[in-house]
Specification:
homodimer, alpha/beta, Aspartate Aminotransferase, domain 2, Aspartate Aminotransferase, domain 1, 2 domains, seven-stranded mixed beta sheet, four-stranded mixed beta sheet, 14 helices, globular, identical protein binding (chains A, B), PyrdxlP-dep_Trfase_small (chains A, B), pyridoxal phosphate binding (chains A, B), lyase (chains A, B)
Amino acid sequence: MAADRRAKAATLDLRRRLLSSSCRLFFPENPVKIIRGQGQYLYDEQGREYLDCINNVAHVGHCHPTVVQAAHEQNLVLNTNSRYLHDNIVDYAQRLSETLPEKLSVFYFLNSGSEANDLALRLARQYTGHQDVVVLDHAYHGHLSSLIDISPYKFRNLDGQKEWVHVAPLPDTYRGPYREDHPDPAGAYASEVKHVISSAQKKGRKIAAFFAESLPSVSGQIIPPAGYFSQVAEHIRRAGGLFVADEIQVGFGRVGKHFWAFQLEGEDFVPDIVTMGKSIGNGHPVACLATTQAVSRAFEATGVEYFNTFGGNPVSCAVGLAVLDVLKTEQLQAHATNVGSFLMEHLSQQKAKHPIIGDVRGTGLFIGVDLIKDETLRTPATEEAEYLVSRLKENYILLSTDGPGRNILKFKPPMCFSLDNAQHVVAKLDDILTDMEEKVRSCETLRIKHPPGSTGPGCRAAAGSRPSNLEQGNLVIKSAP
Amino acid sequence: MAADRRAKAATLDLRRRLLSSSCRLFFPENPVKIIRGQGQYLYDEQGREYLDCINNVAHVGHCHPTVVQAAHEQNLVLNTNSRYLHDNIVDYAQRLSETLPEKLSVFYFLNSGSEANDLALRLARQYTGHQDVVVLDHAYHGHLSSLIDISPYKFRNLDGQKEWVHVAPLPDTYRGPYREDHPDPAGAYASEVKHVISSAQKKGRKIAAFFAESLPSVSGQIIPPAGYFSQVAEHIRRAGGLFVADEIQVGFGRVGKHFWAFQLEGEDFVPDIVTMGKSIGNGHPVACLATTQAVSRAFEATGVEYFNTFGGNPVSCAVGLAVLDVLKTEQLQAHATNVGSFLMEHLSQQKAKHPIIGDVRGTGLFIGVDLIKDETLRTPATEEAEYLVSRLKENYILLSTDGPGRNILKFKPPMCFSLDNAQHVVAKLDDILTDMEEKVRSCETLRIKHPPGSTGPGCRAAAGSRPSNLEQGNLVIKSAP
C-alpha cells in the first residue's frame, strides 16, 4: 500500500470531485501527498522526507512497530463488541486507572475525542440535573453538533451562541486582559469564570459543567497561570457543576512533567471527568472517558444502556495498551521534558534575536511561538506566520499555526522528536526569519511560492494581505503587484 | 492475544469495578467470555464454538484474512489524517460511489455510524435552514446527544421528546395500525408522516429531515411496505426537508437483492443523504456519509472546516476497500439472498408447526421472527423469547431479541453464514420450541438456568415474570416458587 498508485495531480483531482471541500488539505495551494511515515518523519510520493512537528496523534511515532504488531496480533484472533467479556478492555481500564487520581475510576471507551466529549456532556447533565456549560473563549471540543455548540472557535462562524453556553475569557497571560505583569492572573481569570457563572445564574440558568482543554491548544497553545483551574473548579462546583478536563490534545505524557496536563495544577487537583482521544491510539480510532463512581452511578440510574458499537473492542484496547507500553519502555515522558526544554531554550534564544517572536511558551513537547507585528500592541503577525510555515514546508519541515490570529506556531510533534530534530528546526527557523528580515530591509515582497495556475485560499490570503507600515525590526508583507 | 489471561470470574469482577454498568453484557447473569472469532463462529475461553447469528459488524466474517492483512499492510506504512493527499481515501470514495445512485457523489469519512448520523443532521439543517426532524417510532440512530434526541427508543426512557422532534408510526404491517389486510399500507403509513409534518407546520415548525433506517432494525426487523419510502420522500421534500437513509445496520449487500436496503424501494428512489457504519469496516471503526453536491455545497458555503481526526485515514480506508473486495470476490450479496431465502423458508415451516411464531419476515440475511402469546392480539411473547434465546445459548447459538416488546428474534449474522448453519439453527429452534411446548403441557415452569448465586436483571426478569393463562398451543412462564 506504500506504492504510489496515482500521480499527485490525479489524486487531487479525484479528491476535489469526491470529497467535500469542507474537509481541508494542509497547504491547499500545493498540498503534500504523503505515502509513508516512520517515527517523526513523513515521506511524500517522491521519497522526500518531511520532519513532522505537528502530529500529536502519531504520539509514539508514525507506524511504531510495537503498536502495529499489537493491532495485527489482535486483529488476527478477535475484534468484536464489548457485550462479551474480554481481558483487553479490563486490562486497559486498569492500566489507565494507574495513571489517574484514584477517584477517576470508571471508564467508558469510544472511537473519538468528540464522542468522549459528547458523553461528558451527557454525564454532566445527568449527574447535575443542569443543562448549561461554561467554556473558554476560542475553545474547540469536537466536530459533533453538541460540541460545535460549546466551541466558540466554531460557533462564532455558524449559528452563534446558544443560550445554555457561557463563554469565559481565555486565561492567556500574553494577550488576554491579565498579563505577565498582573500580580495574580490566576485569581483574576478565575474570577471572570465566577462572574460568568453569576451572570448565568441571574438569568435563571444552571451550570452542568465547565469544559476546558488542560492546556488550550486551538486557542494558541495557552499555558494557564498556576492555580487557575483549582479556583475555577471551586467556582464551578459551588454552582453545582462538574469540571471536565479535555486531555485529547495534551494527555499521555506530552507535557513531560506529568502524564496528564491537568496534573500541572498540582496533586490535589482532580477533575470530575477526563476525556482522551487523538494520541491514545497512535492513529487508531480510540477514545476514553474517565470519571468518578458518583457521576457514573447517576448515569446508570437512568436504566438506559450505553452501547458504542466499536468502543472498547479488543483491537482498540490492544492498541491503547501498546501505546502505554511504548511510552513506558522508551521513557517518552522524560524524553518530552528533555527535548521540550531544549527546544524552548533554543526558541527563546531566537526570540532575543528576532523581534517577530513575541512569546515562547510551553511545557514538554507542547510549545507555542507567538509571532507579532509590533511589541507594544502584540498585533498578531498572521501573514508572516503563514509565509514562515510555507517556507518551512519548502525546507521539508511540517509546522502549523493556530490561535484566533493564526499567528502562533504550534509544536506538538510525535514524542520521539529528538534533540537533533529540535536543533534542525530552530536553525531553519533562524535562517528563514533572517532572510525575511533581509527581504523586508531591502523592501522585497514576501510571497508564498505556489505552483503555476493554482488559486485558492492560501494564495489569496498571501496575495491579498493588506500592506502594513514598515517598522523598526518588524516584518511587512506587501501586496503583490 | 488469543491466550486467556485471566479466569472468567476475575475478568467479570474487574469489569464490574472499572466499567460502567450502563455498558451492558449479553446474558448478564452468565456472560460469555469470547477470546477468538473466525468466520461466523466465536470461541470462548474453554474453546467452545458458538454460532454467531447476530454480529452484523463482522460483516464478511470474524477476522477475515483479507481484511486483517489490508489493515496490517497499511498500518506498517502510514496512518495519518486526511489533510494530506492519499490514494486510499479517494479510491474508497470512488468505489463506494460505484455502488450508489449517481446523485450521491460526495463522501465524508468518520469513525462511527453515530458520527455519520450527527453529521447528517448538521448537513440537513444547514441545507434546509430548518431545525426539525421526523423519525419513526422506536427508532434508534446512535448514542450521541443529538441522536438520543431523534431516537424514540432512547428518549422515551430519558428526558422525553424535544419540541423539534416529531414521531411517525412505525410502518409495521404485522403490529401497527395498518396490517397485511389493509389495501394500501404504504399509502396509509406515508399519510401518517404527512399528517405529522402538517401538525408540526401548524405549530410553526420547519422540517429539516426525515431519518429512518432503510429497514428499521431495533424496532423489530421491520420491512416497510413497498412504496412507503418514496411517498414519505415526496411529503418530506414538499415540506423542504431531506430524506436521510440510515444504512448502518442494513447496508453492504445484507438484504441480498441490492447492495443498499433503500434500493428495495426501486431504481428511482434516491435519498438525499445515506449514512453507513457497523459492517463497513468489519469491526474497524469506520463510517461514511454520502450526499449530493447540492447538500455538500450548502455546508461548504458556511466556510467552516469539517475535520475528523481519524476519519478517512489510510488504514480505515484500506479496511473499507478490503471489505468491498471480499464482498465481491466471495459473492456474499448473492450468498445472502440464497441463504436468507433458505432460512426464511425453513423458519416459515416452523411457523406452521409452532403457534408461538406469529410472523417471519425479512430479506437476505436480515430476518425477524416475531414471537406471540396469542394469535388474535399478537401479544409479544417477551419472556418466552428471553427463555428461547437463553436455551439457544446453552446450545452454543448466539441470537438476540429486539423490538419494543423484546419478542422479535433478530437474524443478522456475518454474511458467510451458511446453509448448514441455517439448517442447524432451525433444527435447534424446533427442538427447543417443541420442548417448551411439552413443558407447558405438563405444567412445568420454564426457567432460565443461571449459575448459582447470580443475581441481576436477566434473573429477575425470568423469576419475576407474571403468570399468564395457559391457552391452547401457547406458552406460559410460571412464577418461580
